Amino acid sequence: MDRGDISSRIAALRGDAVLLARDLAEHGRSLDPREAFEVAGEAQKVANTLEGVVAVAAAFGARFESRMVSDRVIERTHPVGFVDGMAPSMLAMEAGVTEGVAGRKVRLGAKLSARFPLIRDLVLDGEVAAVTAHKVLDACAGLDVEACGRVDASLAPRLAAMDPARVTGETRRIAARVAADQVAEHAAKTRKVRTVEVCPSEDGLTEWFALLPTATSKAAWTAVESLAAEYRDVDDTLTVPESRADAFGDLLLRNVSVSAQVTLGVPVMTAAPDPAAVPTVRTFSPRDPDETIVDATTGEEVRIGDLPADTQEDLGWHEFADYESADGPGVPTAVEMAPTRVGADTGATALVSGVQLPGLGWVDARTVAGILTSLPLQVARAVLDADTGTLASITSDAYRPPAKMRQLVTVRDGTCRMYGCTRPAERCDLDHVRPWPTGPTTPSNLAGLCRRHHRLKQQSHWKPTLSPDGTMSWTDPTGRTRTTEPAHRTHPNDPPPTPLPAPPPGSPKPPHERSQRGDAWTDVPIPF
User: Fold this and answer.
1) Where are the alpha helices (DSSP H) in 28-65?
2) Nearest one of 140, 141, 164, 166 to 153, comparing CA atoms
């Protein structure tokens, strides 16, 4: 097949689809509900065919294996069905999807082409959705080529008309009939594959995934349900999901002492410049006793009427700029005050933002503030560029980065810097974007790459460029680019951070660095 002819046909198909989609978006209101759903069903068959095209094309690309031997690349061509380890990464970059999604597409095309040709034809005809074909592949895991062929011959004639909810069960029934020994052997192996994984979810939440033996899962679920029911009896405001989550966490942490070491990249701004001196005048206005404020020491909401009389009086005094004496006649304006600690003076000038915790998710500013004020910390200092917030001062003449530089770059990146890859930076290689010694050993020339994507960079399929602000761009041979952002970066366009709770009187001032730009000295953030 001619590459140019294929691209032209795809472009024409895409153009027709775009015109149809826009026409439908503008004039689809004229369709009644039945017609609208019928159109959606017809369009889904086209989507099924295109999913099959992507999978089959990716399968042909995945059969080429590239290996790094010494200073050269050796390529081998395998039959269709072989999947090179780099294939998901290559498809992810080309298609603009995550590596996990790309891997599913490659596996679908390879398995269907090599083991399920009849089902593959149904997908290409648009009669079967890709998600249904995935169910067949998952249910036939562990079967050899001959057994898969027998399942394909028995299942394909009925698959297009089959209820999608019954596909997995029916496929397993056929597989157990044609290759019972292989199904039993695979089941015995899978019982050994136990795992627990965690990944970020919505802000303040983290998702857990556990793969456990059925007997263990049954016992654990019974314990969670039993304890959750007790919690709902005590607190009738709890929903069933909330009570289950509380019960799961309590059971998990029962009789366990936990200690952890966490590295946070927290943008902190200290020693803010003092405002210009303005003559002030004090005015007393008593506060409503039913008004509430938040105690900066305990974090609890306190009613003003419940405070001591001297504290209530202190809260009633307000300080205003005296514009009659400062700038002539005018309306007094309240001076912007720092957060107030109930019953104590404060000299807080520090600001702190939320932080992305690698592998767990976003931690809000209030929680970070609580960590900084309540837990013992080790604070490292690093000079950052005042405009972009990137590391500027640590360099090395050696090839191997020093430990502190490795730690700073790892915290900055958070994950592998390849597009679509979420492997934690702690498990990645620290790679010179521009090869050493042409490229220096500095944070501005270092990026974390997992071992797989380190190999991909060495094969020169995609060339990376690391910008001063930490953005990494990947460019393919045709000039197309994909960009990734670092997990931690201070940028001039970032929103202002949340004020930190006031430290106790007499506490030491947080460390900071001063960076000179031109004739001006600027206080710069400390990453952790």
Assistant:
1) 33-62
2) 140
pLDDT at residue 296, rounded to an integer: 64
C-alpha 509, offset from chain centre = 34
The answer to whether the beta carbons of residues 278 and 321 sit under 8 Å apart is yes
Q: What's the residue count for the chain?
A: 528
- pTM for this predicted structure: 0.56
Give whole-number Cα distances, 426 to 362, 416, 490, in Å: 18, 9, 21
Residue type at position 80: V
Q: Distances in Å between the alpha carbon of 331 and those of 274, 320, 321, 323, 328?
A: 23, 10, 9, 7, 10
Sign of the dihedral through C-alpha 208, 107, 214, 424? negative
Q: Fill in the DSSP letter of residue 28.
A: G
Closest CA to 319 of 281, 277, 278: 281
pLDDT tens per residue, range 477-522: 777 888 888 876 544 444 454 454 555 555 554 444 443 333 444 4
To the nearest 10°, report the CA torsion of 389, 391, 392, 394. Answer: 160
The 3-state secondary structure of 237-290, one letter per residue: CCCHHHHHHHHHHHHHHCCCCCCCCCCCCCCEECCCCCCCCCCEEEEECCCCCC
For position 279, what pLDDT does the model report? Answer: 65
Question: Could you tell me if 66 and 459 are in contact, meaning their C-beta atoms sit under 8 angstroms apart?
Answer: yes
Judge whether residue 470 has pLDDT over 70. Answer: yes
Q: How far apart are CA 349 and CA 41, in angstroms?
A: 60
DSSP 358: T
